[in-house]
Amino acid sequence: MLLLDKIQATSFSPGEQSAVDFMLEQKEDIRDMTVKEIAAAAYCAPSTLIRVAHKLGFEGWSALKESFLEETEYLSHQHSGVDANFPFFKGDTDITISENLAVLECESIMDTLSMLDAAQLHKATMMLRHAKIIYILTAYPNHELTGMFREQMLRIGRTVVVVHQPLYAAWLMTPEDCAIILSYSGETGLLVEAARILNERKVPFISISNVGETTLARRSQATLKLCTREKLYSKIGSFSSEISVFYLLHVLYACLFESEYDRNVERKLGISRRVEARRHSTTSLLQEEEPEDTENR
Predict the structure, then answer these.
(1) 164 Ramachandran zone, left/alpha/beta (phi>0; psi -120 to 50)
(2) In this structure, which CATH number among 1.10.10.10, 3.20.20.70, 3.40.50.2300, 3.30.450.150 belongs to the domain 3-75?
(3) Which residues form the signal peptide (predicted)?
């Protein structure tokens, strides 16, 4: 749920509503305002701001303000005008469709990048690095997306299991393992229950979900945000969310790869030379250089 949705669904006293209305009207302009300044401008007591924060599930006003500003900045970000739910229409030419999808997918990647938090990404990378086995829990349509991540990880010697029965897997995992729970809504019932089990069993997990405040994000030890421009089902394709998932999984693979760079380069290229040596192409850009013959030096 977006913070703005949560505000609309919450009942406030007259004083609290005055503070909320001021926040919604001023948006980014409250960034440099102190609690006293906001309270004075909203004609309420400073303690009222604290009560508003508590009602919305935050420990204090600073946490609420930070979350509000982040969400406001994201939602106000200007896009090209390509609708993520209907990026093309009846009568559009093939080239127009191609251009619109290219713009949408590029913007979706940049959106995802803009929401990456360095501390959260580093924590997620370290969780994967120290995991004995990495499990991916997600709904069926995402299994194909995560399959490519599994294959990439296999080539650097990491075991990734794409789970088809999340609850069974959650009970079988140990604290030495790590899970990635992927859900665009962040509220998928089966995955939320799996997260509860993982918390109970002290198994660390990374959540990947939308920009809003989700149950999965709250329960995870590290959270990554997907580009959030699509409806749940009123759309003709998941072009934006799927490319966002691909990008985040590629980022996790690359960051993990870099954490043991020399070892991973040696393993990846060494095995590839043996397994893929028969591949060839007449296109010069694709052709591999012959490995040096160190034995005859």
Answers:
(1) alpha
(2) 1.10.10.10
(3) none
